[in-house]
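Submission sheet (multi-component)
Chains listed below:
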Amino acid sequence: MTVHVDLLTARELASSRAATVSLLAPVVRFSLRVGADERDALSSALGVPLPTRIGQCSRQGETEILSLGPDEWLVLASESEAAGIIEACAAIYADAPHSLTDISDREVTLLIEGPKAGELMTLGCPRDLDRLPDGEARRTVFDGVSVVLWRDGAERFHIDVWRSFAPHVMSLLTTGCGELALE
Amino acid sequence: MLLIHCPYCDETLPEAEFAYAGEAHILRPDNPADVSEEEWRDFLFIRTNAKGPHYERWRHIHGCGRFFNAVRNTVTDRFLTTYKAGEPRPELDTLTEDGQ
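Outcome: structure written.
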């Protein structure tokens, strides 16, 4: 059975006294791949330093850069900044070869917050999330689905999920949200 | 669930984030046309099938995405060490069952 879910409209998906799950509005995402020698050139072109440790985020205005791997970064920006980022990177391409790919439409963002938000995440995520510091993020797995998970605070997380997996993750979180409230 | 240390992320993480990728340190011949049929068969199919410490590749697929190498005891399932791809294989007598 094909289920058509609206993934473009930001809205609350589920709410209980345990946690609230919401779908956030679309943002611009870029996947940036660049070698160690060209990293500094990209940092100055973007105006935001590329973090070196995997999982670290750096923020400047509405632009956020997250290190996902030794040569892989995720760049988040507002729609108004996107053209500027593409232009700035294209300008230095000859001297600092890299790959900047627009992946905005690949993922959707879900926000999970509430007193049992951490417990709700453990339904699908095998990591020890208590060891993830506030303000950092990791690519990890959620019930078999690759997700990027940010810890915004003690009781607040958000995850980027590939859009084709989103209905599954959304329904799991919605179910969990109700079940945790019954305890 | 096994806990595996990713040498790129420098964290010890649950097995569910990783994928097994076969035996490590198997070199593809530079020019396959020059090797005999037996050597090519050995490259493709013949593996050590070790009972005990085994050099093997893993990929941190739901994480940094990198392939790395590990030494795992196939009897106890314990990881003796993990190291980045391209690094020389560690000598077995330097490793202990405590690993990591």
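Remark: Chain A is about 25% helix and 35% strand.
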